[in-house]
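Minutes, project huddle
Topic: does the predicted pose make sense with X2X bound?
PN asked that the exact inputs be recorded in the minutes so nobody has to dig through chat later. Recorded below.
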Amino acid sequence: MTILTRRTMLKAMATAPAIGAAGAVIGMPHVAHAAEYELKYGNNLPLTHPLNIRAQEAAARIAKESNGKVEVKIFPNNQLGGDTDMLSQVRSGGLTFFTPSALVIATLVPVAAINAVGFAFSDYDQVWKAMDGKLGAHVREAISKVGLYAFEKMWDNGFRQMTSGDKPINSAADMAGLKIRVPVSPLSIAMFKGLGAAPTSLQFSEVYSSLQTRIVDAQENPLPIIQVAKLFEVQKYCSLSNHIWDGFWFIANGRAWKGLPPDLQAIVAGAINDAGMAQRGDIKALNQSVRTDLEAKGLAFNQPGPDSFRAKLRESGFYSEWKGRFGDEAWGLLEDAVGKLA
Ligand code: X2X
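Predicted holo structure (tokens), as shared on screen:
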């Protein structure tokens, strides 16, 4: 008798066909033999999110430019488990690629959460200058020290906004006691506690159901995620707080990456970094158009100013505590990009 556990099911799914296989590449001659390098990429987002759309383009380009030698198989939407599972799989080599949010990889590489300090970045010019510059280089270096390779161009998640079920959040005072889901991330927990809320860490795979069953009353994510994960079905209000800028590090298992010959590394890195740049453009455009769609679907929007939140975070000691945790070097690089914070 075969007993199907969650583990054995996940294993079975890992061998099932995934999107992005070489066969899906338009105009490619049929290649009878398997690719020399079969690289698995897992992520936590629905197929319709720009991250998956651009990743499929990258996979097709890699298959083509490598003449079928490299095949990237994509497992979207938590098919291989939640963030915590995928992070351990990419460390062990079970997965070659994963795109954790900066918040999530910070469970392993604490300094990676530096871009998510509350109300630090005010616009995308600041964000990309920092993340493509010294601050990003500092984080990539830290990621390399735990045996992972981070591609040069970070992908965009977006500015995080709050949604809630009972009442809109107009100022920091409305956060008191709010049961809000946050990612599995020490910084998110500390920040929402600092704001007076009652945060719970849950993997993204559990967000919809935990809102539906009212385990939590609120969550926070960029608008494109609220749209593609259909969170508007289980939330009523959206407060445009822009409280965190969040991005995804495209990371590879270090041994698998070093095992690719340099010419193939160049092909893979070129395709992934270019796809990341295009994905940034997609998210920026979506942030501007998605609100109208979500309003039509019943979400009521408001736009609280940042001042009451910033004041509350200062008062609770959030900035000084995290300055100490990140250290002077990283904090200095952040402040070079955004101005004085604490
Ligand atoms: O879990 C989330 O909220 C998400 C999808 O934004 C991250 O990956 C951090």
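Observations noted during the meeting:
- The two ends are 61 Å apart (CA to CA).
- Residues 1-17, 20-28 have pLDDT under 50 and may be disordered.
No decisions taken; revisit at the next huddle.
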